[in-house]
Amino acid sequence: MVTESPQRNDPTVDVPEALFADAAAETRWRGRFTAARISVPDWARDAPARSVYSSNASGTWEVYAWDRDADSHRQVTDRPQGTRGATVSVDGTDIWWFDDTDGDEFGTWVREPFAVGGEKAEQAVSGAERGYPAGLDLGPTTTAIGWSTDDGSTLAVAVGDAALRTVYEHTEDAGIGGLSRDETLLAISHSEHGDSRHPAIRVLRVHDGSAVADLYDGEGKGLDPIEFAPVEGDTRLLVGHERRGRDELLLWDPVAGVETELAIDLPGDLSAGFYPDASALLVAHTRAGRTSLHRYDLTTGELSDLPTARGSVGGADVRPDGSIEYGWSSAEQPSSVRVLRPDGTDEVLLTPPGDRPAPSVRLDDAWVPGPGGDVHALYARPEGTTGPVPTLFMIHGGPQAADEDRYSAVRAVWLDAGFAVVHVNYRGSSGYGSAWRDAIEGRPGTTELEDVVVVHAWAVESGLADPDACVLEGWSWGGYLTLLGLGVQPERWAVGCAGVPVADYVAAYEDEMEPLRAFDRSLFGGSPGDVPERYRTASPLTYLDAVSAPVLVLAGENDPRCPIRQIDNYLDGLAERGKEYAMVRYDAGHGSLVVAETLRHTAAEIAFVRRALGMPLPIGSKG
């Protein structure tokens, strides 16, 4: 439960009306944020002409409906803080979206008709409690839905007009995996063994909730129920596993008790989904911050490359006609939603309204020796510069995530503002194997910063970074690492910007959503009561006395992941010690879906950093 903070009088950032003295530069950076963007569409299984997608075209990320037959689009949701999740019913008659309060992620699924706008959305599943979403899958007659609260996880099914029926409850984290095509089986993910970072799978009978079979690979080896084969009578479940130290794939028939590991010879992490006839898989291969697509024939084992450009792919899926719709971008080129036709034609599928955002510059790669192996970094320097320059170390969140070769309006404006940008895929990042991802267990925070510091040293020694103008910045887990780095590595950082961070780990654990408490118990090896010293060592609050750099904190009042009370505890500590800091508060949750708010946050960070470094504003002036 998130605890509200009292009224405060923290120092705030004086955000300039314009970041750049040159009007064209000012228009360019703002245009990168305000340009309309769209997600890859999700279509109705039995009515594929009916799709939903997300877009920021209104200035806030909302849900849109697309009738492909009529080539018509309409905005479905219109809420002050935006809308995060949506899907469409199997027959295309209804749109489902998740209704929370001001971005707090605590709510319930509602639905409204696809075809006509203006109706009031109604609760989608009678009897479903409000909670944090724990999965949803829709069949023609069956709904599988999950939610979590402070009491744990509840998974339930509703068949036809029958009342919602609970099929699984546990105090540990669990979620809906998916329904079989004939709606007789339900795959769930669970962590009864106490480790939500490495879950197990159970398949249940829909009609009575009884167990068909369990799959558990043991300590430190997680399983992911991706989807059942999309063919009636086919009970094979596509599963992600890590039996050989990386994300790979297998097919499991829980009814027949047969497992088939798929030998796909690609040197990175794999994810996949079925082709519509279940004859093949669409495989996404991720390695060193870039993604490629492939077709894997389940009969012959043949692996075929699909022609996508160098960069990052997201949200790929196969249409009934064999076309592949996917999102793509690179550091240089803005994102686009594309379609790869069966004849090999690759073209833009949807063009958002308005102007396209300006391109940016490419990311280069560095592999830097570190205490746990070579650390992969992606970096770019401002165009036209030579020699050491002020450098932003932009630290990703997660921690189970990674920086990739994809377009970023935020990175682009920092480059325009005269900063080199360095991304560090520290231990804890995904995409580099299980051992790399899990190396932070028992010692989170300080492990990642050991990798950040070797990349920092490389950036200085290579002549990229000015050692007196290195900035630590990140959001969520990246914000946490920023605050921790300012305390444990104060000699390296001239200034820090932390968005929605963990700042006081014990208070964060007390207030955060239960799925994250389960995650923290898995990460630390217990709760703060079980292993208090680990939490003390990992908490930025512990190192307040050592902080010497000015720090900007940005946080949402309704954040269930990095709640506001624990951030206020940290700010109180800074104030008591006379440390230089500023605060930006906003009325939303873990980040904002409002474009104007994102613009404000970015301008606030750049203004704060440039002033701390003695650099003039607006940029390009003679100040």
Structure description:
The chain is α+β, with helices and mostly antiparallel strands and 623 residues long. The protein has 10 helices and 36 strands. An 8-stranded mixed β-sheet has the order 29-30-32-31-33-34-35-36, with helices on both faces. Strands 1-2-3-4 form a 4-stranded antiparallel β-sheet, with no helix packed on it. A 4-stranded antiparallel β-sheet has the order 5-6-7-8, with no helix packed on it. A hairpin with a 5-residue loop joins strand 21 and strand 22. Helix 1 (23-34) packs antiparallel against helix 2 (409-416) and helix 6 packs antiparallel against helix 9 (564-576). The longest helix has 18 residues, at 595-612. The protein is globular and about 70 Å long. The chain starts with 22 loop residues before the first helix and ends in an 11-residue tail after the last helix. The model has no long low-confidence stretch (mean pLDDT 95).
Notable traits:
35% strand; 4-stranded antiparallel beta sheet; alpha+beta; 36 strands; 623 residues; 8-stranded mixed beta sheet; globular; 10 helices
Structural class: alpha+beta
Tell me what portion of residues adopts beta-strand conformation: 25-35%
Question: Based on DSSP secondary structure assignment, what is the total number of beta strands?
Answer: 36
Basic shape: globular
* Helicity level: 10-25%
What about the largest sheet? 8 strands, mixed
- Tell me the number of helical segments per DSSP (H or I, 4 or more residues long): 10
Order of adjacent strands in the largest pleated sheet: 29-30-32-31-33-34-35-36
> On the 0-100 scale, what is the average pLDDT?
95
As residue ranges, the low-confidence spans are none
Q: Taking Cα atoms only, what radius of gyration do you get, to the nearest Å?
A: 24 Å
C-alpha termini separation: 47 Å
